[in-house]
Amino acid sequence: MRDASGFPNPVPRPEGELEALRRAWAPPQGWRIISAINNNFIGLFYVGTALLFFVLAGILALMMRTQLAVPENDLIGHRLYNQLFTMHGTIMMFLFAVPVVEAFSVFLLPNMQAARDLPFPRLSAYAFWAYFVGGLAFFCSLFFGVAPDGGWFMYPPLTSYTFSPGIAADFWLLGIGFIEISAIAGAIEIIVGVLKTRAPGQSLDKLPVYAWAMLVFAFMIVFAFPAIIAATLLLELERALHWPFFIPERGGDPVLWQHLFWFFGHPEVYVIFIPAAGMVSMIVPTMAQTPLVAYRLVVVALLGTGFFSFGLWVHHMFTTGIPQLSLSFFSAASMAVAIPSGIQVFAWIGTIAAGRLQWKTPTYFIFGFLFIFVLGGLTGVMVAMVPFDWQVHDTYFVVAHFHYVLIGGMVFPLFAAIYYWFPTTSKFALSERIGKWVFWLIFLGVNITFFTMHITGLIGMPRRVYTYVTEMGWGWLNLISTAGSYLIAAGVLLFLIDLARNFRFSFDEAVGNIWNAGTLEWLPTEAYQTRSIPIVRSREPLWEQPNLSEDVKAGRFYLPGALMGGRETIVTSPIDAHPQYVLQMPGPGWAHVLAAVFTAAFFMGLTVQLYVPAAICGVLAVVSVIAWLWDSDPGPSHPPVNIGGGIVLPVYLTGPINHSWWAMIILMLVAGAVFACVAVSYFYIWTVHPALWPSGSLLPEWEWPALAAVLYLSSSALVVLGSRSLARTPQRSSWPMRLALLLGLVLMLGGFAAQLYAPWSAGLRPTETSYAALVYMMTCLQGFIAAVILLMALFTLARSLAGKLDGMRRSTFDNTMLFWHYMTGQGLAALALYALFPRAIG
Ligand code: HEM
Ligand SMILES: [Cu+2]
Questions:
Q1: At CA 806, angle to CA 803 and CA 809, rounded to 5?
Q2: How far apart are CA 226 and CA 228, in angstroms?
Q3: Of the four, 66, 247, 428, 469, which is 20 to 30 A from 311 by CA?
Q4: 54 CA distance to ligand 1 centroid (A)?
């Protein structure tokens, strides 16, 4: 029977059958814990760790405020102060703001989409553990006096080897580069999760705004974070091997760092704000008990903000001597981006006006958010005006502005979210009485601390100074700011007390829907999410689909229980959310946790220059990843299953429908973006020092590059032949496929050797000029991708020999093939830039 939306209704199963399924459902104890680690629990652990970093960075801020309370204070010297503001800024941005929103989504998204989990639970766990271990190690650098002190944006030349010898700056570069890997892993998980694991019927126009926001967030990470990865790679190579990317005497340019950093850093602000806005769009309708006004417009605004925020980065560089025309462009664009945020603000106000507001703690925080964020937006428009920015650049006015935006734009929504959503997983709700105290303390504290700073800045106090003389007359303003910061601290402390008193994690006895919300994360859950997966017919199913909770709980919908005796969820089509296949989730495992720990140890070892232990950890990390992936491609291990309502789904599909295929595509986008950043740097450096480019008789030779190109292309062609051969043997692996992979590997390695040899034989050395360094940088990236392909191909061969790969069960092969083509594409691009570009200009 099909209903209006085109989905068959769930047919209630006979009571006996349901009973049997219920029994199959009850997971054994160990299984409960593992499913917890992979889902809600890792999400909460993740949120908790991020809050820990918020508190730690907050303590650093209090230390700074204490030092600045009175003029000529010598509580903290300039050295420590430099470390404090660097660590505070860095931790708040990289170890709190981004992880906390990813953490929240690991915990919220599956519930909101009534999926049993995000599609790669082990990848979320990997992201978490990498962040946990790496973040704590990074923080501990403070205790050993080796904390970075170059400011959170680490401008060279200050942070290059001449002015920052020692390992402090390396801590920042390797530590942050590593944390970015964790953020990107999370982003891949979120994109595939939002697009592929939704409740049947939850088409894109019924998707909760929060899920939209997370989708935009994750895509922004995919395109913005590669810039900081590229930048940290360049600076680390400059520091370690003296490749001169940012040194003007050898053709480099320190402003290149600023471009790369802010191409990441500006979107970063929206990366933080967009998920928070998504949370607000969920909380406001519930608190007002009416659907969000202008849903479509809000979604368009989110997409618009995400897109346009990539065109604003230069407004952080108005004082670097940028040409007038670009100044005007970026100034106008910076003001224009206020429009989509304005649309959302009006949608929230409209929703509040349309409904009847419940005055609960989350509501207070929403109002605090609106007030503070709008003020931050106003000063934002002020500093977007170039002449004004020239006046206040690097003063406390800017410190006031960005704290209004960051605290208003993300800390307040986050508190609202915690008070709002914790009842989904806690036995008790947080206290309303304490909550209001927390709100008022933080709200007043923030305004007292930071409003004052506008004035301090306007009368001239620069940022990043550890003290000031009495005659400047800044003393009383600073004292007020310091007092305010203690109020904030009191509020946060009270919040932690509330959390300790009332938060009790529970799978199945959570307080539940105390706000009468309409979305799926409020469905009753058990050890492994909802008992059955509902059909969704509206944006607020709990409001509009009567008996939904009872029917879900009774198992009257899809996948009622553990049909295959394991962990499973439904994979749906990205637009309409039509059920496509049943995804068998991985079971308990430790390999991914070890992989994260060893990756962290590898980066730590590099930082403190213990190269042998680092190498060992690197190898162990690779081994753990291989062990982790070994049982990740289960194949059609079970005949198609009847998920209920007459729908029979396969348990395994390959090709573009497969969830891991999507993950691979996104990974390729990330790799491509890193390469693109380096390629753009190459052009940029050319515009700065065209005279250093080879010309005339020094033009690069074309024979070796041409050979490399031919070898790459033919290796790709061989893999395609291998794929065809594999398709002809559905039940087993084929020898032609194995041979094609092996021969392909040989050709690829030959291609890489030719690519490496070309500049070397021409006498080019990476330490000589920025041009040469960039040529070798592109070669390094190619070498990295080639090494990955080598591992992937050997892994594929091993699976084929172990009988775990055939014409049906071929996800591993397909992913290797995709990345192989990527390798060829990137190689051709690098070769063209090396061999053809100097010719084109010379
Ligand atoms: C909770 C209360 C907070 C207080 C009292 C506080 C205080 C401070 C202080 C005193 C500085 C140094 C100013 C200077 O010497 O130039 C600073 C810098 C900074 N803060 Fe905060 N902050 C707070 C929250 C946050 C949050 C939530 C974020 C981000 C999510 C953040 C991000 C930054 C950044 C990026 C810097 C610049 C660091 C640099 O100059 O390299 N802060 N903050
Ligand atoms: Cu910006």
A1: 105
A2: 5
A3: 247
A4: 11
Beta carbon of 83 within 6 Å of any ligand 1 atom: no
Adjacent-strand bridge partners of 641: 649
Taking the C-alpha atoms of residue 306 and residue 38, their distance in angstroms, rounded to an integer, is 29
Q: Is 279 helix (H, G, I), strand (E, B) or coil?
A: helix
pLDDT of 620 reads 97
For the CA of 97, the closest atom of ligand 1 is 30
Q: Give the tokens for residue 147.
A: 């904390």
One-letter-per-residue 3-state SS of 608-653: CCCHHHHHHHHHHHHHHHHHHHHCCCCCCCCCCEEEECCEEECCCC
Sign of CA dihedral 753, 759, 762, 764: negative
Largest CA distance in the chain: 86
Q: Token pair of 756, please?
A: 């490496």
Q: How far is 816 from 785, CA to CA, in rounded Å?
A: 12
Q: Which amino acid residue places its CA nearest to atom 33 of ligand 1?
A: 89
Give the separation between CA 737 and CA 461, rounded to whole angstroms: 68
Ligand 1 atom closest to Cα of 153? 41
Distance 378 CA to ligand 2 centre (A): 14
Strand partners, 426: 505
State how far the Cα of 248 lies from the Cα of 255, in Å rounded to an integer.
10
- Bridge partners, 395 (sequence order): 462
Residue 281's nearest CA partner among 416, 176, 137, 97 is: 416
60 pocket-lining for ligand 1 (C-beta < 6 Å): no
Residue linked to tokens 């230069």: 314
Rounded Cα–Cα distance for residues 48 and 602 (Å): 25
Number of Cβ atoms within 10 Å of the Cβ of 511: 16
Tally of residues, the chain: 842
3 state SS for 54-104: HHHHHHHHHHHHHHHCCCCCCCCCHHHHHHHHHHHHHHHHHHHHHHHHHHH
d(CA 79, CA 81): 5
Distances in Å between the alpha carbon of 641 and those of 197, 658, 737? 17, 17, 31
State the ligand closest to the CA atom of 331. Answer: 2
Rounded Cα distance between 630 and 798, Å, is 10
Mean pLDDT by runs of 10 across the 842 residues of the chain is 47 60 53 53 87 98 97 94 97 95 91 90 88 92 92 94 92 89 93 95 95 97 95 96 95 95 92 96 97 96 92 84 82 84 94 95 97 92 89 95 96 97 91 97 98 96 96 96 98 97 84 94 83 90 90 84 78 94 82 91 90 96 94 86 85 90 97 97 93 87 96 98 92 89 98 97 94 97 98 96 92 96 98 93 76
Other beta carbons within 10 Å of 369: 28
Please give the distance, rounded to the nearest whole angstrom, from the Cα atom of residue 402 to the centre of ligand 1. 8
Distance CA 378, CA 467 (A): 29
Look up residue 393 and give its DSSP letter: T
Residue nearest to atom 38 of ligand 1 (CA): 89
What the block records as the tokens of 334 is 């910076």
In sequence order, the β-bridge partners of residue 579 are 572
Examine residue 10 and say whether the peptide bond preceding it is cis (omega within 30 degrees of 0): no
- Cβ of 751: how many Cβ atoms within 10 Å? 26
Provide the CA 95 distance to its chain's centre, in angstroms: 11
Tokens of 243: 């490749």
Q: Is 572 exposed, middle or buried (0-12, 13-18, 19+ CB in 10 A)?
A: buried
pLDDT at res. 20: 60
Give the H or E element holding residue 756: helix 735-761
Amino acid 375: pLDDT: 94
CB 194 within 8 A of CB 215: yes
Token code pair at residue 412: 């307040």
For a ligand 1 pocket test, name from 53, 59, 399, 454 the mutation site with the most ligand atoms within 8 angstroms of its C-beta: 399
